[in-house]
Amino acid sequence: MDSYGGAVHPTPPFNAPAARRLREALGMAPGHVAYGLAAQYGLRIPAETVVAWERGLATPGERELTALAGVLWCAPGELLAAAATLREHRMSRELSVDDLARQLGMTGASYLRMEETGRWKGNERQSTALCRALGLSPAQFLTATGRDEELAELLTSAVTTRWQAYVRPVAKIVPLDRGQIQDVLEQLHADYQALMVSTLSWSSTGQERSATTGDAGRAFLARVVDQFWRTAGV
């Protein structure tokens, strides 16, 4: 259990059907699970609560999740839906705050502040170490560190203006080789400009500006980000 106090953490994305499936595969009843939680981990959890977890009516906290995984002979990650935040990825890897912070070369308190705020402030070396420790793809890293929107804005500017000016800003937030980022931005820019010419939408009517506002703008940003990852091959 982590040794830091402070903000109350949101509950992890608990996979209720998986919990029931794993229990039944072991031939256990909810009462057996409740007994195991008490005997092995000192948690007084009634069988009714175990049933509520499995029905999605309640969610176990971090300590309860770890204990439940132990009773069900599985990894905590098997009881989680797809992880999205840094905390969820850390929990799925069964790492404590201190363990992960040590691998990143920072204090536990410094890492925990970033995990709680969802804003990653580590340098490029620490970002690479984070991806390695948590098994994150570059796309997962951006989502977990709250930088999806920032990347979308940078990419939009890169494809609609001078892409060369955005190699460095993108490299600061995306854990990819700078040369690869340069190649991807150049390709995206060329593809976008060719599309604008072929559809004759790059005109003086202001349509090029309206394409990045409102619902159409959000859809455009999503397409640019998706194409970035596809072109990068990750």
UniProtKB/TrEMBL annotation:
PROSITE patterns recorded: HTH_CROC1 (PS50943)
InterPro entries documented for this protein: Cro/C1-type_HTH, Lambda_DNA-bd_dom_sf
Span of domain HTH cro/C1-type: 86-141
Source organism per UniProt: Streptomyces cyaneofuscatus
This protein's name: Helix-turn-helix transcriptional regulator
Gene3D superfamilies, sorted: lambda repressor-like DNA-binding domains
